[in-house]
Amino acid sequence: AVTEVVGPAGAGKTQLCFTSAAAATRAGVGEVVWIDSEGAFRPERLREVIQASRAAMGLDPAGFWEQLQRVRVVVGESLEDVHSHVQTVHNMPVG
Q1: In Å, how far are 37, 58, 77 from 19, measured between CA atoms?
Q2: What is the Cα gyration radius of the chain?
Q3: Is 9 helix (H, G, I), strand (E, B) or coil?
Q4: Would the pTM of this model clear 0.90, i.e. be above it?
Q5: SS3 for 2-17, per residue?
Q6: Which helix (H) or strand (E) holds 33?
Q7: How many CA atoms lie within 13 Å of 18's alpha carbon, on the beta-carbon side?
Q8: Is residue 35 classed exposed, middle or buried when 0-12, 13-18 and 19+ CB atoms within 10 A define those classes?
Q9: What is the dihedral sign for C-alpha 29, 24, 46, 3?
Q10: Mean pLDDT per 10-residue interval, the chain, length 95 residues
């Protein structure tokens, strides 16, 4: 599935995406593809969110590396780039 998150600056869009990526990768099924069109992706922040969510669930926070390996980040500097990345994700095999 492809989900676009829009809203004003400071609304929490990036935090929502970090939290969603942490939850999706914790499930261990598939990968997360982060299409960064604003330069907002910070791997260190994703690591912090993953570690915090693992700790909250009683999981070893040090296991974050396995989750991070299931996140692909691509940069979309133009509408054409973003469209191309969405097409690539759409054509990826499921499972």
Answers
A1: 18, 17, 24
A2: 14
A3: coil
A4: no
A5: CCCCCCCCCCCHHHHH
A6: strand 32-36
A7: 18
A8: buried
A9: positive
A10: 85 92 85 86 93 92 89 88 82 72
